[in-house]
Design brief:
The protein has 348 residues and is α/β, with parallel strands linked by helices. Helices cover 30% and strands 25% of the residues. It folds into two domains: 2-138 and 314-346, Medium-chain alcohol dehydrogenases, catalytic domain (Quinone Oxidoreductase, Chain A, domain 1, Alpha-Beta Complex), CATH 3.90.180; 156-291, Rossmann fold (3-Layer(aba) Sandwich), CATH 3.40.50. It is built from eleven helices and 18 strands. Helix 4 crosses helix 5 (178-189) and helix 4 packs across helix 10. Bound molecules: zinc ion (ZN) (2 copies).
Length: 348
């Protein structure tokens, strides 16, 4: 089979390798679609502490495929079943796993990070993943592409749960990339009365409109706070989500929220930029709730998949470019350039 191996920073090689061996409690899937995520790009550029130097790894963690081999001890799956594999495999027994927060497990394994992921024609699904719920059957109404895209959607579902968007709420999402689009879809489903999206790219602001945005603001051209206050009659937004990695936006987010507003600091900061000034008096006197979420639990993934399967959101429209595995570097370049939304590696 063909696999795209990450060997180190800026070093990915397409290799012809034997099919992954599976044990009696594992499964093998034929990967059908794997979406390129910002995390893949970050690993490609900066490496990852879970990939020791000298190791090689198949990246890709937004995966959907078809089961082609089942170990004799595996129950509950059949050959030909279509599955998606939420990436974070918790240890199963720590406090966070017991609470169902497997994305916070200190000893997690993850497809495309600590074990081989979806940028290959076939992928082993180890017994741990099967036992802990990381092999979810795809509803008939979803394509493989849509199922792979349930991963980013699930991360925004986790964020939604933390800010509890209520019907009628005004929601501001800063960052019009694919994750911004997922936030838009989830908040629309939750009944947001007005969804405002800000970004510095007109191309992305134009594309994100189709997901249910009411107002777009180019914050490179217009002062963001002035524009937000104009759109909210000077009140500010009930929910603010910072879907970008800009420290100044985190600082500003406190001024964009209405009293009792909920703010999710969704995008992590690059190394060296984590210390961000926040006016805590705004939090105090405006009774703001400042929260954050990272990744998603299996339950979030399952729920995201149900939302996608309902057909009430247009998740498929997130896929704006398709590549075959030989062209993975072009797919990464496409994702980096910020013109389109999601790039997918498709394997027939
Ligand atoms: Zn991802
Ligand atoms: Zn755990």
């Amino acid at each position: 089979m063909k696999a795209a191996y990450y060997y180190g920073k800026q070093d990915i090689r397409i290799e012809e390798v034997p099919l992954p061996q599976i044990g009696d409690s594992d499964m093998l899937i034929k990967v059908k679609a794997t979406a390129v995520c910002g995390t893949d790009l970050r690993i490609f550029k900066f490496g990852h502490f879970k990939i020791p130097e000298g190791d090689k790894r198949v990246l890709g963690h937004e995966i959907a495929g078809e089961i082609v081999k089942i170990g004799k001890n595996v129950k509950g799956y059949e050959l030909g079943d279509r599955i998606a594999t939420p990436p974070n495999i918790g240890c199963g027994h720590c406090t966070w796993c017991i609470k169902g927060l497997n994305q916070l497990c200190p000893d997690y394994e993850a497809f495309g990070i600590s074990i081989d992921g979806g940028f290959a024609e076939y992928m082993r699904v180890p017994s741990d993943a099967i036992d802990r719920g990381n092999a979810i059957l795809i509803p008939d109404s979803l394509s493989y592409e849509q199922a792979a895209l349930c991963e980013p959607l699930s991360c925004t579902y986790n964020a939604y749960e933390s800010v509890n968007t209520a019907p009628g709420d005004t929601v501001l999402i800063i960052g019009a990339g694919p994750i911004g689009a997922c936030h838009v879809m989830i908040n629309k489903m939750a009944g947001a009365g007005k969804i405002i999206v800000a970004d510095i790219s007109d191309a992305r602001l134009k594309q994100i409109k189709q997901f249910g945005v009411d107002v777009t603001i180019n914050s490179a051209e217009t002062d963001l706070k002035t524009a937000v206050m104009r759109e909210t009659d000077g009140i500010g937004c009930d929910v603010v989500i910072t879907a970008c990695s800009v420290p100044e936006i985190q600082t500003l987010s406190l001024e964009l929220a209405a009293r009792c507003g909920r703010i999710n600091l969704f995008g992590g900061m690059p190394k060296g930029k984590e210390i961000v000034p926040l006016n805590t008096n705004l939090i105090h006197y405006n009774e703001l709730q400042v929260v954050a979420t990272t990744g998603s639990s299996i339950e979030d993934f399952y729920q995201a998949m149900r939302i996608a399967a309902s057909g009430k959101i247009n998740l498929g429209a997130l896929a704006t470019a398709r590549f075959n595995i030989d062209d993975i570097i072009q797919a990464f370049d496409y994702a980096l350039c910020g013109q389109g939304m999601k790039a997918l590696i498709i394997m027939d």
